[in-house]
Amino acid sequence: MINSTTLKIPKKYQPMIEFVDVECSTCDNTPVYWIYLNPGFCFGYSGWHLCNGLTQTEISDILSSIQPCNCEECCEVIRK
Ligand SMILES: [Zn+2]
């Protein structure tokens, strides 16, 4: 896992995450954190492989929804 932010990622989620990035929102300059998951995982509530949040609390909440994913895209990458 590559984490270029100051966010704290609990150890148990680290193997599921490819990288954590931060970018400033263009409208009000608020930092927005982006979480990109490794193939084989997605966020439970959206089924997506990336997600963003504004605070450590929000990110912790998002992380707790990570679940195994066996969509076509993940299977393709894992097969290679
Ligand atoms: Zn997937």
What is the gist of this entry?
The protein has helices spanning 56-63, 72-79; strands at 2-3, 17-24, 31-37, 41-43, 50-53, 66-68. By secondary structure, it is α+β, with helices and mostly antiparallel strands.
Structure overview:
It is a single chain. The protein is α+β, with helices and mostly antiparallel strands and 80 residues long. The chain has one domain. Helix content is 20%, strand content 34%. It is built from two helices and six strands. Strands 1-2-3-5 form a four-stranded mixed beta sheet, covered by helices on one side. A hairpin with a 6-residue loop joins strand 2 and strand 3 (31-37). The chain is globular. It starts with a strand and ends with a helix. The relative contact order is 0.19. The mean pLDDT is 94. Zinc ion is lined by residues 42, 49, 69, 71, 73-74.
